């Protein structure tokens, strides 16, 4: 114990000196106790900005590799990270930072076409910088006043794009699309099964029993298409419903939910009140997909909303990927019917190129979110404003508006986390900079580029070496294709299954070869209908046409070599 | 449709021109299609850095207000945010950015003592800058090779601090302590109830029925102290167990779980196999708290581990706040017993001042996490390395190590989200810069400062005007105190309850007045034992002593005025 801390301090004393009090204090800790954060931050930020822009510039060179190491094994063999007991100098930290960049994937090449996100827009980087500086927690508005306002503005703006009443709608950013989908599921559970809060799934089941259902008929069921994102399965697992509670609705050839089949399955489950069949259960939730992960398909929201209306089901839309088509006058029809849906997940960090993460969970009737809240006396304080509102004699709509303001004092209470990053700022600044029209044009450009790539595969110079996968009539941003045998090998391929197997092998070979060459990053995925694997590339509105053209040629060439070798073998 | 997209492209063509193809393209979108991201980012980053450092510098001035607006109502009356249809100029965006800073809380004042986090360390800001630039998703290692390695290094380093075998342990960053606690609960559910995966809570309940338990005895129960964080309640609600499944164990006067009572409650629940009493259920999970939210108490992990060992329960430690004491040789004894626990949540974004969010969920036996994974063919590809490992004839420990490497190819599969930000980089760079010793010294300095503040309240010049709340013998970083009546008013206060009510009113008055003065941000909270509300301030290792001294004096002065006014009234 330092002497200075033993005597009761009767007057202001100098700040505690770490170095005197602690034999294990390092030089870094000592310096830290003295220096202004502003001065120190100025150095770090300047170095980080210089490294970042150099990283981008290097990526923008024509021949820059998209990644330094083909596989994790190569990386592990060449890079080792260690955590020291004693601190390092600032220069050593700068070297670590540089090494982080040098050994990472470089999305600024424009040739990272592997995932549904790509290089972030520079204005998004500015938003991230402010978020880091402010370090404000979005759980209560008093700690993050402006970030909360920005979230509120984005929620209202997105609600308007959905055709919802923005004074009744509400929502919040979540740490990703999976989390947004999960919050929708949890909120729907609370709404449909008031016993869920205290009694959990067992409580919901007891209520279903009380309503005359028995056995497996007394379990909540959710419905989603076979092409929907796996986060619906994970949400069902994590929320205690279990994977068996997820009914997978078949899709048509374009990857869209078969809505007639949805209704049949809902009725089949609901009508079996004694739970005789394995399919029995109480439907309460349907997830529709706006932009599926593999094919980029959009479910027919209007038709699904009709089914949900007839059967009293919550309709959630997973628009994590495709949701931003709402910004485009030309393509927003793909989500026609959204005005009648209950909730929407939308991730500006994908199609709109906001930095990771930026995901919103939106609710048409925001008051549904109050079911998620707990009374936490030490954190969520009722203000005198709240109390005024409760005792007021306002009109119903004014009361709804007051209730919304009260809710937004404590956004954290609406979800299942506590602390929250102010991710909405990224969309807020993007929207400011480009406007709704500019973001719409960005979406349009992506559609156009994908259509062009699709045409190149089907009709371009390598058409005889490439098979285009099945795709929606209105192609979104994914193009799935794979090598096929040159026509003079066709005789060797007998039967659909064997063709698919061989082309799947060719696809994996293309994938491995592209990774080894490090010029393009693409992914592969199995397509529906047991077609086997296809290369899935995700175009982004800024992808260069010359690069896409080169990639298509490269896939054809690698595939040709593969088939030639397999012919010889 | 633009003509250029209709003809099949037979040769590389220039990139699509957005402006030609889209009548709704804005000037911003056009510029965007042309300019290098590096050039654009250089401008944004330079402006953001200049604004950020100016914000910090302004905060570091002696008289800087901690917030611009006392309440949200004031903010709303003065600031309106709008989202435009047409884009704005860069200069207009810069003005928006500046407005974000101008109207926010300024943690660099050092007088934001309201929450468990405060100003982030500058090296953390550099980490955030790199994360934004890399924009790499931590769900698969191929997309985020270096960020995954940094996560792996931090997980191993933290596991070693816990005394765990780092080759068997595993874990990952999560978007906050609540999420980390929830993942532990979900993983424990999977582990204890294999039927949970497919059948959910109903499946777990069926299994309990099959084991001879009936009625409410066939429900899973979790145990946590009455002073634990509300995220355990939220996790139970969100995971479908329900709030009734949370058994709140009483605490001692210092806010620590009463371990004898824990064991009694566990036995009472477990032994009632017919579910006669409301307390019946199947215990499977205990949450211990390392650093409680209000008092900063540490549960006795060794004693709780004994109970969990005897009854076969998963022992999770919510060290979101207090976990970093593991870095301090002097204070790590507060978590003695952690070596025997199953999982730990720890948030470097709180005590270690990494930027928000930086939270880890750590598991002593990492293979438990595989229970959370789904086979997602389009995302998590089995590599040829994995296949080799499966067919190998390695020793058991080498197999465990190979299994860990395979798991770490797809960190996203271990949790319930999909996309993930590489938050570990913040701890990685902090640890590099300060070393384990430097971070330990940081922790030590916080303890010392809190002790000094506590002494000042109890024995300083305003001791007769202040009541120090109950606190742990080994005081952590929170100091709870409130105004009390000067001795010549004491006669007016009759009885414990009335005293608490009056002092609670005084505390709220202090809180409101401090907010209005905008010099300090502190919080208030109800203390256990029906003592009513106390001011809770959270010291941070960099908090200036002069500021703390001034705050204590100000609380005493505002309280004195309050009591004088209430005496007169």
Automatic annotation (TrEMBL), chains A, B:
One Pfam family matching this protein: Pyridoxal_deC
Cofactor requirements of the protein: pyridoxal 5'-phosphate
Keyword Transferase tagged: yes
InterPro entries attached to this UniProt entry: PyrdxlP-dep_de-COase, PyrdxlP-dep_Trfase, PyrdxlP-dep_Trfase_major
CC terms in the record's Gene Ontology section: cytoplasm
SUPFAM superfamilies: PLP-dependent transferases
One GO term of the biological process aspect: carboxylic acid metabolic process
Name the UniProt record assigns to this protein: PLP-dependent transferase
Source organism: Tilletiopsis washingtonensis
